[in-house]
Write a structure and sequence with these properties.
Blueprint (H helix, E strand, L loop, with lengths): L1 H25 L29 H8 L10 H4 L2 H5 L18 H7 L25 H9 L1 H4 L17 H4 L12 H9 L10 H10 L6 E8 L5 E8 L8 H10 L5 E2 L6 E2 L6 H5 L3 H4 L4 H5 L2 E4 L2 E4 L10 H4 L8 H38 L4 H22 L4 H4 L1 H28 L13 H7 L4 H13 L1 H11 L20
Antiparallel strand pairs: 1-2, 3-4, 5-6
Helix pairs in contact: 16-17, 16-19, 17-19
Bound molecules: heme C (HEC) (4 copies).
């Protein structure tokens, strides 16, 4: 009986949904506000507070991304990660995403960006700023894209000082949606897709997010500057030439022999997935029905006679009445339960894949210790590389379990298969070298896992705190002096991190 009721409810909902989806297009007509858009001064457009007097509602809702302030230490939550990323920055520090208000500060605070002492010290390249601030396109337009992508991260510490804001998604003269990061159009063209300018309005409501919520790598590019100096840039590039799929990107990387790092324990040449949120979303039912990121994450909000897009980008389950109920008929509670069940299904496969991959790394290290050669481990390492890529692709954009449930589960199943193939091979190799009773050590807490992968956490934190007390402070002083930063816009931005709360 319960199921019959559910079925009837679902059928009614589907009919209603079809109606609503067609009305997505009708919303085009409601966008009148922008026709009379005032011009925000060119020189100050990267400071979002300069837009507030013209667009107070969008500004104040944008500012509320400050409320998404919880630090969730993923290495604590899923300790396997510190094994999977041994020898790579992510094994030091990795948190779940927070509100856009913190994007820039979280990048500065991450132990991954280290503790530079001047503009030339490492460890990371300038490219690491790319999806954090509207100052990035400002520098690209001022210095040229290749110059921007050349040098160490600290080179632009005093320039890139405003977190994700209006000028990342809007043109300051017309107010319309716009993107100023050249890598997006290049990627769309490489995939045979229309550029941003040629895309439909509904697709632009996805593509503004796809400037950042995508998979990418740093492409090494040799160039010569105007003074004839030979330089090497690391250019943010999206691996879309074989299509926007996990397999397409994997082939792209394999064809150019690319790896992000060599795994510290298993010596496997690894790939790190970034966050293919847009790509995965496109495989899901909502994208296929023409629903865009903004429909759920920036729902229309009525304030008196004025209707505007809520700019508080957050988890839409917090705003279900405006984000979901415009299309769905089941109760909020029922819909939320459906979403939660999707999460649980994903999490079960997620844990299995991580456990098997982590054990494959540790067992490979053991085989090396017992005398196994690179030749004997070649096929095993290929399984590990491919499996970890697929696992990471499925989960690196955390909510893909909701945006694209089938694709997420498919990738996790394939990842698990690869990990098991590696482990089967390892049983034979280990036995050949006389090891028959090896059991991988316990990595069930962040501390244990980081110890196994050799992360000197205390030293990293101490060095970071020193950087924060010195060079970071200089950056803000310089930025204020040069008119690029208003300290008020950084209010309370730096009170939480994985190492102080
Ligand atoms: C300029 C790059 C950039 C653009 C453009 C961008 N994002 Fe983000 N987004 C980020 C980064 C970086 C984070 C993580 C910030 C952090 O953890 O400090 C993030 C975090 C988020 C979060 C998590 C918020 C929370 O409170 O947990 C959501 C949701 C989100 N983005 C959605 C979107 C949507 C939807 C769009 C397009 C309308 C978009 N983003 C456009 C870079 C971007
Ligand atoms: C991550 C991208 C993003 C950022 C950052 C952003 N917007 Fe928007 N904004 C959008 C999207 C998407 C829409 C919906 C546009 C549409 O469908 O035409 C929108 C719509 C608008 C509109 C049109 C009216 C409305 O509410 O739908 C105005 C005005 C606007 N934004 C102002 C701002 C201001 C001011 C800021 C900074 C405080 C800002 N936006 C930051 C993506 C963004
Ligand atoms: C049909 C509605 C819907 C659409 C469309 C949608 N999302 Fe989401 N998104 C959600 C829901 C629901 C969650 C939270 C799932 C959960 O974790 O419980 C979420 C979570 C997120 C998060 C993580 C937030 C966090 O704090 O962990 C990001 C980032 C995000 N979405 C980005 C995007 C981007 C980018 C697009 C477009 C390419 C998009 N979303 C399209 C509903 C949607
Ligand atoms: C603009 C309309 C629209 C909005 C907004 C929307 N949905 Fe949907 N949703 C759809 C359509 C259309 C389908 C596909 C139904 C079908 O055709 O069978 C769907 C399907 C679903 C499904 C089943 C899909 C699957 O993968 O199993 C879930 C769950 C769901 N939506 C949850 C949500 C949640 C939660 C929100 C708000 C965060 C939301 N939707 C917002 C239109 C929408």
């Amino acid at each position: 009986m319960k199921y019959k009721l559910l079925l009837a409810g679902s059928l009614a909902a589907i009919g209603f949904i079809s109606l609503m989806v067609s009305s997505v297009n009708a919303r085009e007509a409601e966008r009148v506000e922008l026709a009379t858009a005032p011009i925000v001064a060119e020189a100050s457009k990267n400071k979002s507070e300069e837009w507030s007097r013209y667009y107070p509602r969008q500004y104040s809702s944008w500012k509320k991304t400050k409320e998404g302030d919880e630090i969730k230490d993923m290495l604590k939550d899923k300790s396997q990660l510190a094994i999977l990323w041994a020898g790579y920055g992510f094994s030091k520090d990795y948190n779940a995403p927070r509100g856009h208000y913190y994007a820039l500060q979280d990048n500065v605070n991450s132990l991954r960006t280290g503790d530079p002492v001047d503009a030339k010290s490492g460890p990371m390249p300038t490219a690491c700023w790319t999806c954090k601030s509207p100052d990035v396109p400002r520098i690209i337009e001022r210095d040229g894209e290749l110059e921007y992508f050349t040098g160490k991260w600290a080179k632009y510490g005093s320039e890139i000082v405003n977190s994700i804001g209006c000028a990342d998604c809007h043109d300051n003269k017309t107010g319309v949606l716009s993107v100023r990061r050249p890598h997006l159009d290049r990627a769309l063209i490489s995939a045979g897709l229309p550029t941003f300018a040629d895309s439909t309005h509904q697709e632009k409501r996805n593509l503004v997010c796809a400037q950042c919520h995508v998979e990418y790598y740093f492409k090494k590019t040799e160039w010569t500057d105007k003074d004839g100096v030979a330089k090497v840039a690391k250019v943010v590039t999206l691996p879309w030439a074989n299509g926007l799929t996990a397999e397409g990107a994997e082939k792209y990387y394999n064809d150019i022999g690319f790896s992000d790092w060599t795994h510290k324990l298993s010596k496997t040449p690894m790939l790190k997935t970034q966050h293919p949120g847009y790509e995965l979303f496109k495989t899901g039912i909502h994208a296929q029905k023409g629903v865009s990121c903004a429909d759920c994450h920036m729902p229309y909000t009525q304030e008196g006679a004025v209707k505007y897009s809520d700019h508080q980008l957050q988890n839409p389950l917090n705003t279900m009445d405006r984000s979901c109920m415009t299309c769905h008929r089941e109760s909020e509670k029922t819909l939320e339960e459906i979403v939660h069940r999707k999460y649980e299904r994903k999490d079960q496969l997620h844990e299995l894949a991580m456990d098997n991959l982590a054990k494959a790394h540790l067992e490979t290290a053991k085989a090396m210790e017992a005398g196994a050669s690179d030749e004997e481990l070649k096929a095993i390492r290929e399984h590990i590389r491919s499996g970890q890529w697929k696992w990471d692709y499925a989960v690196a954009s955390h909510p893909a379990f909701f945006h694209a449930p089938e694709e997420t589960l498919r990738l996790l199943a394939v990842a698990n298969e690869s990990a098991m193939n590696a482990r089967l091979g390892l049983v034979a190799v280990l036995a050949k070298h006389g090891v028959t009773d090896y059991i991988a050590p316990d990595f069930s807490t962040k501390e244990k896992a980081q110890k196994l992968s050799g992360v000197p956490l205390e030293n990293l934190v101490a060095a970071k705190l020193k950087f924060k007390a010195t060079l970071e402070q200089e950056w803000y002083k310089t930025a204020v002096k040069n008119g690029n930063l208003n300290m008020e816009s950084r209010k309370d931005v730096d009170v939480k991190s994985s190492f102080y709360r």
